[in-house]
Amino acid sequence: EKGQRIKINNKFIFQNELNMKKYVLDQKSDINYSLAGALIHNGTADSGHYFSLIKIHNKWFEFNDTNVKQISDSEFEKKSYGGNEIIDKSNGYRNSSSALMLFYLNN
To answer: Tens-of-pLDDT digits for all 107 residues of the chain?
Structure first.
């Protein structure tokens, strides 16, 4: 409906490694980047919460206000890839987390 805010939360799987060689003028060597972090939004278009997922020594950590915890690769994917699948069958709660911004570091 016109004027209504909606959050598009379709599943989007992004790459952990990027080679930017074909996007630069000097194509003599590979220009590789590795995923280092993601800013996550959990909620709707009208409200929600932001937190960060950061890779430190090849392990993912969730920084959520004053709480910091290590998470698995599968937890990282669940929190960052989006998608509207039901994650709690007891109440029909759907996933509302997705990456808003990705951070890559040059290798």
So the answer is: 678 888 888 899 999 999 998 888 877 778 899 999 999 999 888 889 999 999 999 999 999 999 999 999 999 999 999 887 766 667 666 778 999 999 999 98
Q: Which amino acid is at 71?
A: I
* 59, 70 contact by CB (below 8 A): yes
Q: By the 8 A CB rule, do 79 and 88 touch?
A: no
| pTM of the complete model | 0.84
Q: Which two tokens stand for residue 37?
A: 């972090």
Counting Cα atoms < 13 Å in the Cβ hemisphere of 78 gives 11
Q: Are 75 and 60 in contact (CB under 8 A)?
A: yes
Radius of gyration of the chain (CA): 16
Q: Say which residues have a Cβ less than 8 Å from residue 97's Cβ, sequence separation at least 6.
A: 40, 41, 42, 78, 79, 80, 82
Question: Measured between alpha carbons, how far is 56 from 61 in angstroms, rounded to an integer?
Answer: 7
